[in-house]
């Protein structure tokens, strides 16, 4: 059966669709959102996360590194990784007993993930939950994504596909037709500014959302909100105007920005890429919630 690369399976998630859910985080994403809080999901392959505060200075990792990329940073201090030499083989993470070195990214089969999700079945059956495929971007691994959705569906598990929509239409359509619910990110309607903050045009995701709406599939749009980036009146007006043209979009989730990605960027050795934004104020978030509600949408704060 097809294998895929994931970086986490989160149990008891409550913001990734209805009820209590198990969320599978896929590796690989074609966007580079400046506010990304899962930067370990961007690259398609494994990443080494380094957590110096957990290092017990045992130095068991140094001799196992085939690239000689690990050294003592200072006398009796935590180890330092030469990222230019590291090829993310994972040998040091296997040797580290203190979880100071861990790999983000493991190859798994569809059956492995289905079995892991099955352990939580009692929780989502009671709560009306299920499994959510997220990332990264699940559609960046289209065959694995589709097969996983199909296996879960065959077992009666409610499935949600959490996507940016940046994929070939046929790829999105094939996965969406299996999923019970599509959680669809909409960041900004203004394409120039969308490119500035995500690195890509919004033309394909918006065109795909329109086509998806024609499939009569349940879609919940999710909007990450950053103060001064996309929470202004014109941006909210544009988003409401566009979403009102899509009859299948009845629910909007407002995701308030948080700085959860900062430590992960540091652990990946990519702290320079981290940008700090501010979330909208409570008052502004309430205004936005009210605006969507007045336009006829069901609104959820936090997804
Ligand atoms: S094996 Fe882990 S705890 Fe020991 S020196 Fe390496 S990183 Fe630190
Ligand atoms: S992941 Fe492999 S190459 Fe990188 S530091 Fe660890 S042992 Fe060395």
Summarize it.
Helices cover 31% and strands 23% of the residues. The chain has helices at 91-95, 110-118, 121-127, 142-154, 169-178, 191-198, 203-213, 233-243, 262-267, 282-294; strands spanning 3-13, 21-26, 47-50, 70-72, 79-81, 101-104, 106-109, 130-134, 159-163, 181-185, 219-225, 249-256, 298-301.
Model description:
The chain has a nine-stranded mixed sheet with strand order 7-1-2-8-9-10-11-12-13. It is α/β, with parallel strands linked by helices and 303 residues long. The mean pLDDT is 95. The protein has two domains: 3-44 and 105-301, Aldolase class I (TIM Barrel, Alpha-Beta Barrel), CATH 3.20.20.70; 48-103, Alpha-Beta Plaits (2-Layer Sandwich). The chain has ten helices and 13 strands. The chain has helices at residues 91-95, 110-118, 121-127, 142-154, 169-178, 191-198, 203-213, 233-243, 262-267, 282-294; strands spanning 3-13, 21-26, 47-50, 70-72, 79-81, 101-104, 106-109, 130-134, 159-163, 181-185, 219-225, 249-256, 298-301. The longest helix has 13 residues, at 142-154. One iron/sulfur cluster binds at residues 48, 64-65, 67, 69-70, 81, 86-92. The site of one iron/sulfur cluster has 14 residues, from loops.
SSE diagram, text form:
Elements: E1 3-13, E2 21-26, E3 47-50, E4 70-72, E5 79-81, H1 91-95, E6 101-104, E7 106-109, H2 110-118, H3 121-127, E8 130-134, H4 142-154, E9 159-163, H5 169-178, E10 181-185, H6 191-198, H7 203-213, E11 219-225, H8 233-243, E12 249-256, H9 262-267, H10 282-294, E13 298-301
Parallel strand pairs: 2-8, 8-9, 9-10, 10-11, 11-12, 12-13
Antiparallel strand pairs: 1-2, 1-7, 3-6, 4-5
